[in-house]
Amino acid sequence: MSDKGKGIYEEVKSKVNKLKEEGGLEREYWDFWKLGCLIKTKVHDSRTIYYDTSREFVERYNEQLIAIREEVVENLDYYVERCINVMRKANNFKVYYAKTNEEAQNIFMDELGDNKVIYKSKSNEVKDIGITDILEKKNITIKETDLGDILVQLFDYKLPSWQIGPGAHFSIDDIVARIKEVHGVEPEPTPNSIVDYYRRTYRKELLNDVKVSLTSANAISAEEGTIVLGENEGNISLLTRATDKHIVVCGIQKIVPTILDAVLVAKIQSRINNVPFNYISLISGPSSTSDIRGINVLGMYGAKEVVVILVDDWRIKALKEDLIYKDYLKCIGCRSCNFVCTAARAFGNIFASKYGWGATAILTDYIHNGIEAITKDGLFFCTNCENCYHWCPVSINLGEILKSIKKEATKAGLCPPPLRDYQQKILKEKNPFK
Ligand code: SF4
Ligand code: SF4
Hints:
Number of strands: 14
Largest sheet: 6 strands, parallel
Mean pLDDT: 90
Strand content: 5-15%
Number of domains: 2
Distance between the termini: 21 Å
Shape: globular
Structural class: alpha/beta
Bound molecules: iron/sulfur cluster
CATH superfamily of the largest domain: NagB/RpiA/CoA transferase-like
Helix content: 40-55%
Oligomer: single chain
CATH architecture of the largest domain: 3-Layer(aba) Sandwich
């Protein structure tokens, strides 16, 4: 094993020890999250609410969804071109095609112009594309608008957090104390009064002050050039309407053939996570009116300008070169594979990267930062149980992909010593326990 390998192994071991510490935020979050997994996969699966369980719903549409994703991935160039044409010519979107993440970041900074504040939401993919990093580097103030992300900012919490409920581990008393410390106001220690505090204060700001807002997209339809955004809080609806400029940054794999396909993707994302999409926005252009002598003018009450940055980076290459993570292009970004992942349940936020929790986040780190990064993120925690594969609504076998990456890591001398010992015993003694 190389010195580098030993160093990485020690680093991962110390993260495991930290996770075991009682009273630490890592531990607290992890315990909370395990409970959340049970709730997500069991309790809410109730036929008393819908006539089917969320699993039955996903299975009913499984084949249709796989067909949609395969159609797009197999004809990605065609759908990208078609989508861009419609968005530009029919929908008055300003559309960019960025070949790399770096190009996307530069385009984004040009579009941001002199603005020093950005309001954002629905932005896991924005993080993957490096927009968050560049904003931080350039000292742009990032105003999160989803309450979970607002709490993460409030506490200045830097560890990777679960994408579906990033602030779920903060106690009510701690939230109240922190609001008092930061904002000088002390709401009642109840969820209602905390929510009411943000509604009274932050909502006004969102309605009055937003020059530029940033989101990703749940899906984009090629036929209509429509951006689909699902949410439960109403922040995305406010942001995308009450802003001068709405910038959408997302990977080209988010494109689907039609608006009905896009809504199906959003519905599956909502049902599989048991998260209600109280609002689904279908955005097909900037706000406009033709009420004055039939002349079309952009920017009535909603956004004056909608800018879409579609990003390729690794995607076309993965397809053309048949890379091991090519199947990841079919991912709809529901992030629900975490609920059933044995490694995520056992190791919580140390089977994670700066892109979030779980296998998708560590795979993203591999794609951008390589083999050492993914080994540090806990690659070898994956048990290859394939729960993710059986759960995934598009049947992506993340376990199989990680197995191939483990082989690569082993060849590079990064396999953890206990596993290497087993390997030696098997090779020499034909018995791992001798
Ligand atoms: S791999 Fe599958 S389950 Fe995981 S986030 Fe993607 S679509 Fe969802
Ligand atoms: S195969 Fe690996 S990534 Fe998939 S559920 Fe099992 S432990 Fe998690």
